[in-house]
Amino acid sequence: MVCWAQPLGAAFLIACLWIVPAAAQPRPMLAARLAALAESSSLYPLASWDSALKRIEADRIRVEECRAAGPCRDILAKPMADLVARFSGLEGQKRLLAVNRHFNAFPYIPDRAGERPSDDWASPLTFLQRSGDCEDYAIAKYLALRLLGVAEEDMAILILRDSARQLDHAVLVVEEGGAPMVLDNLRGLAPLEAYSDFQPLFVLTSEASWRLKSHAPQRLAEAR
């Protein structure tokens, strides 16, 4: 997915999604809150997200093995392992702030730059090598926070639409202190209600993904 650097039309978005049958699954608490932004929502499996989850898990195992080794000789996993060691003493919003700032220091690189395939969702460890675009930042932050002890059920990736600019954007939402906080590659840590000008489109979690059928931007402030 290309976000913010250039328009992403609805036809292109739909072409990137692969719909497959899925049985109803229980929603984690945060996902249920985000799904409540719409009058109705439905399971909407995305092939890109399914593949991303497998890469996230593979990278998690690799980083954990690196952390257990002494010294770690995995040059791809070591940067993430070092980050986890550096931020391991942080909790709450301080942890979210540190992770958001760390990854936001990487340059924004759209998918079509550097001969990357269109709608390429990079693995977290790949992001550390070449950076990426909005969903790549969100995925890298997702793994970093998971390694730092944040429960998967307290995190979700939210795909939003900026109606004024007709652009799609991906951010990581984390439940912290009873409120959803947003980690965004375009700004500092902010509460979800700060995104009231955006239309929520999709909620992606470790369990499943949902399409929000009703686009009601003002309801972002209600997901508390």
Class inferred from helices and paired strands: alpha+beta
CATH class label: Alpha Beta
Question: Which quaternary structure do these chains form?
Answer: single chain
Tell me the distance between the termini: 28 Å
| Level-2 CATH architecture | Roll
Strand content: 15-25%
Helix content: 25-40%
Gyration radius, rounded = 17 Å
Give an overview of the whole structure.
The protein has helices at residues 10-15, 29-35, 47-68, 78-87, 92-104, 124-130, 134-147, and strands at residues 41-43, 155-162, 167-176, 179-183, 190-191, 198-204, 209-212. Helix 3 (47-68) packs across helix 4 and helix 3 crosses helix 7. Strand 6 and strand 7 (209-212) form a beta hairpin. The chain is built from 7 helices and 7 strands. It has a 7-stranded antiparallel sheet, with helices on both faces. It is an alpha+beta fold. The protein has one domain (28-222): Roll (C8orf32 fold).
Task: Give the helices and strands, then pairings.
Layout lengths: L9 H6 L13 H7 L5 E3 L3 H22 L9 H10 L4 H13 L19 H7 L3 H14 L7 E8 L4 E10 L2 E5 L6 E2 L6 E7 L4 E4 L12
Antiparallel strand pairs: 1-7, 2-3, 2-6, 3-4, 4-5, 6-7
